[in-house]
């Protein structure tokens, strides 16, 4: 496996050493793990605050921290529907929504989507 060197802040590195040690990961492995989680969030169209809110809501309503993939998609679709409504109502300009930028939304062909 090839690798590249990057600089990370000392606070992040120390945190990665501490948390990684609990999971038998090196600091580099822990940072890679966190990077994969962040990428998955972005790929799903969720921000960190949205994910935290969703997980907290799920935990408080069920008493468990288990969240299914279906619940993640429901959360994402609800946010998308809210965003679309805000754009259609003129409360938010479409240009502020990254998935509306550059005319891509008009050119997109949605398959099996309720929108």
UniProtKB/TrEMBL annotation:
Pfam families: ParD_like. It comes from the Bacteria. This is ParD-like antitoxin of type II toxin-antitoxin system. The lineage of its organism: Bacteria, Pseudomonadati, Pseudomonadota, Betaproteobacteria, Burkholderiales.
């Amino acid at each position: 496996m090839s690798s590249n060197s990057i600089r990370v802040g000392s606070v992040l590195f120390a945190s990665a050493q501490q948390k990684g040690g609990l999971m038998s990961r090196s600091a580099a492995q822990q940072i890679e793990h966190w990077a994969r989680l962040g990428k998955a969030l972005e790929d799903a169209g969720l921000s960190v605050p949205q994910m935290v809110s969703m997980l907290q809501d799920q935990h408080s309503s069920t008493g468990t921290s288990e969240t299914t993939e279906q619940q993640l998609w429901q959360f994402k679709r609800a946010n998308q529907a809210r965003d679309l409504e805000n754009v259609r109502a003129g409360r938010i300009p479409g240009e502020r929504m990254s998935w509306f930028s550059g005319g891509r939304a008009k050119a997109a062909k949605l398959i099996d989507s309720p929108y």
